[in-house]
Design brief:
Helix 1 crosses helix 9. This protein has helices spanning 16-29, 46-55, 66-78, 132-135, 174-182, 186-189, 198-206, 254-259, 263-280; strands spanning 6-10, 36-40, 59-62, 103-106, 110-112, 126-130, 139-140, 147-148, 160-167, 210-213, 219-220, 240-242. 30% of the residues lie in helices and 16% in strands. The strands form 3 sheets. A 7-stranded mixed sheet has the order 3-2-1-4-9-6-10, sandwiched between helices. It contains 9 helices and 12 strands. It has a single domain, classed as Spore Coat Polysaccharide Biosynthesis Protein SpsA, Chain A (Alpha-Beta Complex), CATH 3.90.550. It is globular and about 50 Å long. It is of the alpha/beta class.
Length: 286
């Protein structure tokens, strides 16, 4: 796979600090990246967008395509429980139908500790890290995404976390774009038995094509004791720390305080705030 020339993320007003830390830490640890940054959003005002672009001149702020938003709105109308999480679907615009370049999609709740350049050394069309089920030695049904201990009925299916994905240009073309949009049809969604949103779409479409990376490329710290007993990458060795789940380090609310009882989360929280301080102290930033 070619090295990515686009970095794409989803942000919002209440995720802005997360986006800043993710982007700053990525650029600090991945000097090989010289491409453009695309931030998908639906509520950043002109001041917030201008500030982001001042901090990251290679950035472009975009709203999700009308085509995708209309599909998501139609889905939410049929499944109202998705309403508070509908922004998560905006990541699907990484499959833009153009298919001209390799893209890196990254959630805005991660902090980079080391380079991830090695992820481009694989020949697969998509590389990502396993999700909780995979790390725990379990699997998911490829159609429903229900977690199970039984072997997958589809040979080669591997469930993965969509918080960090490197996607080759050949998966970003018109045909795949059509598949993504069709997957949001309410009838197609009826069989989903997990609480995932965009991750459900990516897994159902690409679970047989993904090349799984070492967990250190996307070390999730938000599961806490739900991952007890799994053989995991030590947080100290991780290239990327991912604050999956509701406890986001910039919010400093009760959910964060509760998670600090977990040693791995506490370690990652300190690394995030160190990265935030470095970002705020950058020369020339007011």
């Amino acid at each position: 796979m070619e090295r990515p020339s686009e970095l794409i993320t989803v942000s919002s007003t209440d995720f802005l600090a997360g986006t800043q830390v993710m982007l700053a830490s990525f650029l600090d640890t991945n000097p090989w990246f010289t491409g453009k940054i695309i931030v998908l959003h639906d509520d950043l005002d002109a001041i917030a967008q201008r500030r982001l672009i001042d901090d990251f001149p290679q950035m472009e702020c975009r709203e999700p395509t009308d085509e995708l938003r209309n599909r998501v709105s139609h889905l939410v109308a049929h499944y109202p429980h998705l309403e508070t999480r509908q922004r998560r679907f905006y990541s699907l615009d990484v499959i833009d139908g153009a298919g001209s370049e390799t893209a890196l999609f990254v959630d805005s709740d991660v902090v980079f500790m080391r380079s991830i350049e090695d992820a481009a050394n694989y020949g697969a069309a998509l590389v990502a890290c396993g999700d909780r089920a995979t790390i725990m030695g379990r699997t998911r049904d490829p159609a429903t995404l229900r977690e199970t201990s039984h072997a997958s009925e589809v040979p080669g299916f591997r469930s993965f976390n969509a918080g960090l994905m490197m996607i080759a240009s050949r998966l970003r073309g018109t045909g795949t774009r059509d598949d993504v949009l069709e997957s949001l049809d309410p009838d197609a969604w009826a069989s989903v038995q997990s609480d995932h949103t965009d991750q459900a779409v990516f897994n159902r479409l690409f679970g047989q094509q993904v090349q799984l990376l070492d967990e250190g490329f996307n070390r999730m710290v938000g599961h806490g004791t739900r991952m007890a007993g799994a053989a995991r990458c030590p947080v100290e060795d991780a290239r990327v720390l991912h604050f999956n789940g509701p406890a986001k380090p910039w919010r400093m609310d009760n959910r964060v305080r509760e998670m600090t009882q977990d040693a791995d989360y506490a370690f990652a929280l300190a690394r995030w705030h160190e990265a935030y301080r470095r970002f705020l102290a950058r020369p020339g930033r007011n």
